[in-house]
Amino acid sequence: QSESSDKSSAESDSETEVEQVSVYHKLLATLKTSTECESEEEEDESESEEAGESETEMDSEGSQEMGEADGGEEDKSDASDQEEGIAATDTGEQTLGQEQADGADTSCDPSHGVIEEFTDVKHESEFSLETNFMEEESGDCNADKRDSNSSQAFSEDPFKQHMDKELEEKEVEKMSTLPKTSSQSKWPRLGQLTFSSTLEQHKTLKVDKEVDVKQLYLHKPLESTWPKVNKQFLSSVNKPSDSSFTPLQRELFCIMNTYRDLFYPERNALTNGEEIRHAYCLHALNHVLKANAQVLSNNTKRRDQKPGTNNDDYRDQGLTRPKVLMIVPFRECALRIVHIFISLLEVNDKRKIDVSNKKRFKGEFGSDPEEKPPNLKRPEDYEAVFAGNIDDHFRIGVAILQKSMRLYAPFYSSDIIIASPLGMRTIIGAEGEKKRDFDFLSSIEILIIDQADIYLMQNWEHVLHLMKHINLLPLDSHGVDFSRVRMLNLNNWSKYYRQTLLFSALQDPQINSVFNKHCFNYVGQVAVRNVPLSGSISHVVVQLPHVFRRLEAENLTSVIDTRFQFFINKVLPEYRDAIMSHTLIYVPSYFDYVRLRNYFKKEELNFTHICEYTKKAAVCRARRFFLKGEKQFLLFTERFHFYKRYTIKGIRNLIFYELPTYSHFYSEICNMMKATDNGVDATWTCTVLYSKYDAQKLAAVVGIDRTAQMLQSKKNVHLFVTGEN
User: Which residue intervals define the domain UTP25 C-terminal in the entry (predicted)?
Assistant: First the structure.
């Protein structure tokens, strides 16, 4: 199959076919494969070297490339496939779901293609919550009973407080009908917080200046293992009494431990990503250990009680076993999470925990460091995001008892599920399919969505699809003992108890929407809402006039058409003259890109284009034609830049059709102009299209003060940036 007939899990969503690895996956695969195009790409300093690079690519691609009418364009069938995909919203995806919803994992093994999903059935009884008892787990049943029942601490435990609260009908009705009330607060490290809730506000949450790990109600052995595991993030600045958390972790965990929903939009893979991952892993593991200990303790009590005793006191579980769902973008993320879990469960080197299927897990989720080409130069943030195994199609169940962990547990025997959005999408399936399953999502108590911004670059539809299928009543009983099921689950109120932790590198309307519309936690929500003061425009190092052109749209739905008309009627005519050659048009949305490409073809403009579907040889040719000036325009998608981060040489005029999703892409693209040796500074231009609905993206680029002025003024704004503004 040629790449042109492959499909992607990108914005066009619907083009996936069962037996094919998507272009998007191939795009990921190329990040780890040394190709002529990539390995020479950053080293090339001259035109001739670029030409040579492209020739080599054409040879390596084979003769199928040679039949293209326009060397700078991707294959014709590729283009038509994508256009069809826009209309065909979910067909291919449904096919994929039908084939795989029965649990056949479509995780792509580079050497074996699509492999069948493995689940560990061998250790079922060993990890069963129904057949294990507290003394077998801890070795000291009485100690646990003392800890859990007779101490006042147990009743103050946030886990118990949250899960044992019995909501009333009128409170649930309130939450489903009344708007939320909100209040603001400022914390030392997190900054501006917005607390919102429908029910009456509890006492205002204040950050603890110092956290004693013993007062956090951490389950054994986390109290002793956490300080050791987290030591790598701590500096000598931390006081001895506060030695187990960084300032950021302390404030985040303070919120997590109250079981409020949390949205933190300042996650950075380079700086704070790993300390955040450690904090939410601690919280998730703490929750699971407490929940399982409660079940095992009650098993023991039930076994020892006299016949005929009322069993209604032991409601301690959901309709299905999985309690925590962790959504992460790549296999490498799942690998790191499991390693953190293992570290947190191992008290010392002598007391190693038993991890079943560890070798298999390492083989499927690990990566070979030698796979990475040594001569690719990419920004540090790119290296941090795309480290390790970057396959995005996976799901794995994890069962945990205090001294052992079972990887590849069947979902209905798992405590924690770690998956990518695509991994979830293919098992949830679509309406009308025979083989689909989402009952295992019915009793999720903690949902963690990490690196949410990356899903905007993958396929946001998968995230929305997941949110629609979480905490629904299961279609089958799955052998549950209804006398042990909490009333909140039987009442179908699970969603009001679910805590959602959402971490992202940026504020985005689509991410905000998930937090605002799909989070119903009765305790309320906390969102970090800091505004950018300077903006990424201050990192532009080339002297360049920036013209921000405002378009007026009546409403949010009309913005897309208004932008297109504004561009072809008012902006493009100014660039049609041959003197305005070397014009790069940066397009964040693939749909806008297709629309522009079709218009450019119809108008017979001299252009070439690069998107996430473009073949390697076509990319090299397009870059060469653009550099030499043989093509006046280059249409360039944001997703291509996200996954490749090539330096495009020869840019003299830059048009941002829409503001970039990632604000630092603005300065990155502008700074590409300095890569052209023969460029004349005075002739460089940069034009940006924006509307009032782009306030968040605009603030991230120009800063909050300028944004306020620009949104008040109806005129175009001219900024001249010297790199020090």
Answer: 536-720
The C-alpha atoms of residue 231 and residue 306 are separated, in whole angstroms, by 49
The one-character DSSP state at 506 is: S
Task: Tell me: pLDDT of 462 over 70.
Answer: yes
Over 90: is that where the pLDDT of 724 sits? no
What's the CA gap between 284 and 259, in Å, rounded? 11
Could you tell me what percentage of the chain is helix, strand and coil, using 3-state DSSP and rounding each to the nearest 5? Answer: 45, 15, 40
From the number of C-beta atoms within 10 Å of its C-beta (0-12, 13-18, 19+), residue 209 rates as exposed
Contact assessment for residue 261 and residue 525, using Cβ atoms and an 8 Å cutoff: yes
Distance, CA of 399 to CA of 407 (rounded, Å): 7
Cα separation, 31 vs 41, in Å, equals 13
What kind and span of H or E run contains 396?
A: strand 395-401
- Provide the CB-side half-sphere exposure for 99 (13 A, CA): 15
Task: Give the chain's end-to-end CA distance (angstroms, integer).
Answer: 50
Mean pLDDT is lowest, of 123-132, 248-257, 294-303, for 123-132
Over the stretch 58-111, which tens digit does the pLDDT of each residue have? 333 333 333 333 434 444 444 444 443 333 333 333 333 333 333 333 333 433
pTM of the model: 0.83
d(CA 241, CA 96): 53
Mean pLDDT for 681-685 is: 73
Output the average pLDDT for the chain: 80
Reported as a single tens digit per residue, the pLDDT across 133-178 is 765 444 444 444 444 444 455 578 899 999 999 999 999 999 988 8
**Alpha-carbon distance 718 to 596, whole Å?**
25
Spatial CA neighbour of 331 closest among 282, 301, 367, 305: 367
Distances (CA, A) of 282 to 251, 277, 425, 559: 14, 9, 27, 43
- Chain segment 174-223, per-residue pLDDT in tens: 998 888 888 999 999 999 999 999 886 655 677 766 667 777 899 988 98
365-398: b (≥16 Cβ within 10 Å) or e: bebeeeebeeebeeeebbeebbebbbbbbbbbbb
CB of 662 closer than 8 Å to CB of 456: no
Where do runs of H (alpha helix) occur along 65-133? 76-87, 91-100
Distances (CA, A) of 18 to 342, 431, 441, 584: 35, 18, 24, 36
Residues contacting residue 235 through CB under 8 Å, at least 6 positions apart: 246
Beta-carbon contacts of residue 330 (< 8 Å; ≥ 6 apart) = 386, 388, 389, 390, 391, 392, 420
Topology adopted by domain 536-722: Rossmann fold (3.40.50)
Report d(CA 689, CA 72) in Å as an integer.
26
Q: What is the band of 306 on the pLDDT scale with cuts at 50, 70, 90? A: confident
Query: Distance between CA atoms of 78 and 60, rounded to whole angstroms?
Result: 19
